[in-house]
Every structure is written in C-alpha cells, then in structure tokens.
Design a protein that fits this description.
Layout lengths: L1 H17 L8 H20 L8 H31 L1 H6 L4 H30 L7 H28 L4 H13 L9 H7 L5 H11 L12 H18 L1 H7 L1
Amino acid sequence: MEKVSILWALVRRDYALQYAGSFLGISWMFLQNLVLISLYALVFLVLNLKNPSTQEDFTAYLLTGLLFWIPIQELLVRGTGILTDNRSLLKRSSLGINLFLWIPYVQFLIHSFVTSIPVFIYLGFSGTLNLTGLVFGYLVLVLSGLYLMLLLHYLSRLNILLKDISPLIRLVSQLVFWGIPVLYYPTGVLKQWNEWNPFTIPLDVFRTTVISGFQAQFDWFHIAPFLFFFVLVYLLAKRKFQSVILDHL
C-alpha cells in the first residue's frame, strides 16, 4: 500500500508538471481527446467518407477505434520519456526505475476511463453498445496497456542511452496508427498488412467485446508472436539495461 500511495503522489506530481500554468489544467487532456475524436467523426461521417454505407455501423466502428488508440498512443509517447523527464528525481531518491514506469500507465487508465464515458453513452443511445461486455471492454484496454508496458520497459531505458528518441516514437506511432484499422475496414492486401501490426488484435478484441453483434475481423492467435517478442524485449531491458541505465542517469 505504501508503494501505491507513493505512485499516486508521483502521478499527481507528473500531471502538475505537465500542465503547470495551463488555464484548463488536466482538463485540457480530456478536452483534447474529445475534440480529436469529434474531428475524425466530422470528416468521416458528416462528409460521408465512410464504408459501408450505413453510417450508424461505421460510427460505432470509428469511435471504438479512436477510443482504443488515443490512450495507447499517449502511453507510448509518455512512457518512452518518463525516465528522462524524471532524471533528477531518480538521482535523488531510492524509489527505483520501475516505480516511475508505472506513472504513465496509471495516467493511461485514467484517460481511457474518462474518454470512454461519452463514447459509451453515445453507443448506448444508438443501440450499438454491448452492455454485457462493457466491463470486459475496459478490461481489454487495461490488458492492452500492460501489453505495451512490456515494450516501454525497453524504450524508456533506450531513451536515456540515446538522449531523446521521442520525435522518432511520435513518427512511429503515426505509422502504427495507419497500420491498424481504426478509420477503415480491413480488406484485401490491406488486411494482410494489418496482421503485421502488434495492436491490430487487441483492437479487434476490444471492438468484439464492446460493439453489439460485431464479428471479429482477424484470427486472434496471430498476437502470439508479438506477445512473445514483447516479453523477450522486456526481459532484455530488465537484465541487460539496468546497470547501464543507472550509470547514465
């Protein structure tokens, strides 16, 4: 319990540093997510850039895709730089590296939950929300964050060694975004390419859980190679990078 309270204090401290001097404070993060979702909805729905022709079906598909991806992208970018941003505190304290790595994950859980509320309310009113899968849908988000955390243990340490890889991570996150079917339906060669994206299956599981009557688009066992690779990367970061990182802080 003591570590939990310390972690929560670090999360609050990180929020305070990120939004110091901001007029809206932390509310800006959630407002930004909702505005981004609304903009995509405007382009793909109001301007009739949708497939199939039934707008209601694609609305649920689009909103759940954005709800899944936006917090994941925030976790990827924030998690990569969390150790570098807290370098001075890490030097002065004996809390250890691993505790700081959970800061962006706790923020990911908060952002996912808050952002999901208006999305789930809309899906409920439109009749496309699977009420029995509501809790399991959030559980899929929780597990997806843990899945990404395996990789962030490596990327956050690599960020210290290479000074700052945040711009590269932001670029890669955009490539990953267009490599999963968030804004489009996977068909043909594009569907085959989607299978090479490590986040395609978690997104497909999330949609299957949340959207009423949604049929899975992919074979879920395809995630096994990615999960195996992420675990190997995690073990490499823990065993090979630890002593090296402490010297570079």
